[in-house]
Amino acid sequence: MTINEVKAIVSSSSALEVVKAAIERAKADRAHALLELMEERALIRAGEIDEKLNNGIDAGSLAGVPFIAKDNFLTFGSHTTAAAKILENFEAPFQSEAIERLEAAGAICIAKANLDAFAHGGSTENSAFGPTTNPHDSTRVAGGSSGGSAAAVALDIVPFALGTDTGGSIREPASFTGVVGLKPTYGAVSRYGVVAMASSTDVIGPLTHTVEDAKLVMDVIAGKDTKDSTTIENPYDVSATEVKKVGVIKEWLSDGVADDVKSSILRTLDTLKSDGYEVDEVSLPILQYALAVYYIIVPAEVASNLARYDGIRYGVRPGTTTNLASVYSETRNHGFMPENKRRILIGNYVLSSGYYDAYFRQAAKVRTLLTNAMNEALETYDVLVGPTVPTVAFKLGENTRDPLSMYLADQMTVSASLTGMPAVSVPVESDGLPVGFQIIGARGSDTTVMAFASVIEGASV
Amino acid sequence: MTKISPSDVQKLAALSALTLTDEEVASMQTDLTQILGYVEQLRDVDTADIEPTYQPHDLETVVRQDAVIEYGVSQVELLKNAPEQADGSLVVPRVIE
Questions:
Q1: Domain of B14?
Q2: CB half-sphere exposure, A3, CA atoms < 13 A
Q3: Which end of chain B is less crowded, N or C, counting CB atoms within 10 A of the terminal residue's CB?
């Protein structure tokens, strides 16, 4: 159901009925999409919304609409674990800004969704509480790290879920589960109250059934916030410009792309051409280095951001600790997943003196070249397009033994992250498992990207 | 190609406030060698005269009034998650003997 369909039911019955029905669906979660229900708080809030509606008081643009938040958003009425043991018992003393804004607009959070611990991963198999499976095929992953959010929408438990995207963590699970996943321009949404992963690329965005719904959510959550000094003037207030020229990234339709993905993308491009769009191949050789840049810069930022987990102010501290150093190390040994540790170690390696220039600084320079190349291409083309992921959803366990093969799933999503550009994954017609079509625009051109995403959505029905 | 030794892993772990089991050291050694081997391809890119990018937008240093902002969160609430606390303070093991 879309947001507007749910709103219609709120009008004809009540927010309480809508929320109760969503909670029933959440209880039947067959994909392990969810970590915790927020039944008590959700029902109270639904009652409050109904009271407003019955008294003719404006209850907001999303009044009574249930949603689910990835469990790295701080929320009242539940734990916030980031799917890591270290935060297993954590109860947030304040709510994230995005949740506050959604609540102010009348939306009701009913549950927290599974993720790769601390959002490190592309399959939700790194969750300390077990993987989320793909609603289309339970032997396959839902993608990650926002796999629970994507699966919750694909299962139609709620019309929208919040995710976070650092290198593809909204777009990749959206592609794997057949939903829309939006990574807005860097800085479009306040990250206050969201567990930090890599601060120079982390963004918040929605997973939805339709592009229009993603826009409805952004209209509520986007915009400056004094509590997050990286927020920018709201790009969702800017009018869209018409897309005429579409640049297809040549490197993303190479031999490394699975045939089923390639044929879906090519079919969509043919439709665009016959609809009169100018569709050209554009070669950006620097993109081949994007994944290497990402897997230096992001672990470096992860190592820094995860230094705060010391078992003193919050977190599960094992009872065996005897001195301060062991409080730190035992808390971290117990509380982090192997992938968390791997990224911390890599991050501290590339940041250590002697390696800083060769790894971190060189990656930051190649990031500049990547940004320049993409900006230049976006002077010629209104949007850049290609697949979201080189494959359809892979099997559970297929990539868990080899971290590098797991990282390769991110190769088409990391570029928009490193450059701060808006990017959206839209499901397109496929022969079997879902395939996502990715659209990238210049920074701040979110509404243009979204308008074009609606075209793709319409073309593939 | 960078070869990571078990003692490199141990040293990194110590820098990261982690103590790894022997098993973890062995698997991290394999993974780190592989991942660092992969990212080393950046050495092939000519970056002479290129400035590094550390964050993706044009914002200059954002300043605000140096004033206390009321976030509406009490000390009691903030201490609630501490593994050990007493008299409004966080408790840690004795540091000075």
A1: 6-44
A2: 23
A3: C
